[in-house]
Amino acid sequence: MKRVLGIILGGGAGTRLYPLTKLRAKPAVPLAGKYRLIDIPVSNCINSEIYQIYVLTQFNSASLNRHITRAYNFAGFTDGFVEVLAAQQTAENPSWFQGTADAVRQYLWLLEECDVDEYIILSGDHLYRMDYRHFVEHHRETKADITLSVVPIGEKLATSFGLMKIDHTGRVIDFSEKPKGDALKQMQVDTTVLGLKPDEAKEKPYIASMGIYVFSKEALIKLLQANPEQTDFGKEIIPGASGDHNVQAYLFNDYWEDIGTIEAFYEANLALTRQPQPPFSFYDKEAPIYTRARYLPPTKLLDSHVTQSIIGEGCILKDCRIHHSVLGVRSRIEADCVIEDTLIMGCDFYEPFAERQSNVETGRVPLGIGAGTTVRRAIIDKNARIGHDVQIVNKDHVEEAEREKQGFLIRNGIVVVLKNAVIPDGTVI
């Protein structure tokens, strides 16, 4: 794996995850109480012995840069690094990144210098655990120019994905973007070719791209230089290359979630609380998920009732009830609160006792969730100040609402309180 370079695409503006991406890049969005989305592909690389990793970013990258700098210091590896390559304007290329392929093309001068045989190109906003060594080995064994990791899916989900068709050797021979009707039927494949069991292959006769690829060095450089007008890997570069390049499919038949929307992000986080077996586990000692070490104190629970929830480090919970929720680091929940079906991202800092007392006395809202507050089916972004006796319950069952000036939005019926927002005492949402 020393001959493989990891390239993680930081994503675009992240409009589908807004307002969580208002002040941060998509890969920097907090996950599971203590991690960030970028920790998933970086950890998969490290666990797969890929220690040379570039992260390509363009939007709101300050917090992502800070996290990577603090979390990934490869002092034990002489040639290991995780570095951010931000979009930049040059005399030769005055444009920002125009797409996934264009982002890689603009840094091709740097990537060419790396003494590697393959590039593994990854997305920064997926939740999955994968050993890339098997992925790369499959690429080498089939003598492929490009290998795509694919997931098997059934007919119900197939119309929402870009599908591929393969021949009996696993070579990709056709692509179709979200087909329907007869066009969908024509994209059925025998997934036993990729290693699926016959009964499962019958249930899932379609394959969809995960948006992660292995390119041979020579193939990537040639394709990007020969097609300067093509800006996207999945829609242009790879379909265009399938005719005269060996493009192979590699089956990944495990949990994989694209968490690019508010609803998908919310559901993926709360699914982590499931018992006895969540769809994705952070408890795998063989392949841990790494993140920044914060050295926080243990969480303190004072006469609180917590069920089916995840509580991050350094939290203070007072005489409250928490059910089916995820609480991030440094969360503070005051007395008589009810938190249900909610993701609270926590805080970046502690508010000193004297400052909290001063805020209460002067009528300002302290950091955290105030006494007597009820929160249901919501996402509370970092450093939010929720007053006492607040009701965040979407009482009118609104599906979509724009209330940014009031500190929140509603997406798919989920109330999203903005980062640093202040929700005054007694507010009802």
Structure characterization notes:
This protein has 429 residues and is of the alpha/beta class. Helix content is 22%, strand content 28%. The strands form six sheets. Strands 15, 16, 18, 19, 21, 23, 25, 26, 27 and 28 form a ten-stranded mixed beta sheet that branches. Strands 1, 4, 5, 6, 8, 9, 10, 11 and 12 form a nine-stranded mixed beta sheet that branches. Strand 26 (401-403) and strand 27 (408-411) form a beta hairpin. The chain is globular, with a radius of gyration of 23 Å. The mean pLDDT is 92.
Quick summary of this structure?
The protein is an alpha/beta fold. 22% of the residues lie in helices and 28% in strands.
How many helices? The count is 12
Shape: globular
Helix content: 10-25%
Largest sheet: 10 strands, mixed
Look at the helices and sheets and give the structural class.
alpha/beta
Oligomer: single chain
User: What is the number of beta strands?
Assistant: 29
Topology:
Layout: E1 4-9, E2 30-31, E3 35-36, H1 39-47, E4 52-57, H2 62-71, E5 81-86, H3 100-106, H4 108-111, E6 118-123, E7 126-128, H5 132-141, E8 146-153, H6 155-158, E9 162-166, E10 172-177, H7 182-185, H8 198-203, E11 206-216, H9 217-226, H10 233-241, E12 247-251, E13 256-258, H11 262-271, E14 300-302, E15 305-307, E16 310-311, E17 316-318, E18 321-323, E19 326-327, E20 332-333, E21 338-344, H12 353-362, E22 368-369, E23 374-380, E24 385-386, E25 391-392, E26 401-403, E27 408-411, E28 414-417, E29 422-423
Parallel strand pairs: 1-4, 1-6, 4-5, 8-12, 14-17, 15-18, 16-19, 17-20, 18-21, 19-21, 21-23, 22-24, 23-25, 23-28, 24-29
Antiparallel strand pairs: 2-3, 6-11, 7-13, 8-11, 9-10, 9-11, 26-27, 27-28
